[in-house]
């Protein structure tokens, strides 16, 4: 009887020797790899990502793998997955409607004593261009000064779409100004063109058209007079009766092309001042600064 018990104990010990390394011995994970390491998706596209937890190259099963996203442009179907017998844990990532770059993070932690982690970079491409954002929109330009018009391409969800050719967009005016040669700004991916004014004041209507679907954007350019180069005083000649009523003079300012210009240039922060004086001592201008009436392009004084 004692010999039989001894044989059973020997057999059980042998089983332990063979079982512990594979199944019963505790495995300490020392590696975690997330695949694929990079992925490129369309808006609302999906991709499976698999993390494998290993110990000396052998998969470790029955461990929880945590998943997270930064900044979270899309979503995952689970954030805690138990590894299978080969150490694998899989989640599915689904992109949203915002283009950009997302980072999927997988990690395993041994109650805070040891942490293993890996990441995958996910690029979400925008859709096809379907609309425009044109800047500066309605604007004011001084005579002979050009303005830069910028056309940004957008998809159905207002994501920026890099332009590839300037010919994707056409520019036209109502006939008062003209455009230079359009080009794609490599830094911004937008199409830019110079709007060229002539030497007269006017309001021009600009039309920017996305040729793929004929979507149009309309903006206005108001051309105003430039820096004063000429001045006229009205009335030019006048006769006064001694002791009679005062006479009011209107002072008009003009730029080099004889466009009426403003007394103060709001866009440049400049104010133009005109000094008035009377000759031969026959009269004087009374309290000019206190008697000014501003009519936009002219002022009156007595």
Low-confidence stretches: 1-25, 285-302
Instruction: Give the name of the CATH superfamily of the largest domain.
Output: Immunoglobulins
Helical coverage, percent range: under 10%
Straight-line distance between termini: 137 Å
Description:
The structure is a single chain. The protein is mainly beta and 302 residues long. It has three domains: 2-124, Sandwich (Immunoglobulin-like); 131-224, Immunoglobulin-like; 226-302, no CATH class. Helices cover 8% and strands 44% of the residues. The chain has one helix and 26 strands. It has one helix at 2-24, and strands at 31-35, 38-41, 46-55, 58-59, 64-70, 75-76, 80-82, 88-94, 100-109, 115-124, 131-135, 139-142, 147-154, 160-161, 169-173, 178-179, 183-184, 191-196, 202-210, 215-224, 230-234, 249-254, 264-265, 270-271, 293-294, 298-301. The strands form six sheets. Strands 11, 13, 14, 16, 17 and 18 form a six-stranded antiparallel beta sheet that branches. A hairpin with a 4-residue loop joins strand 23 (264-265) and strand 24 (270-271). It starts with a helix and ends with a strand.
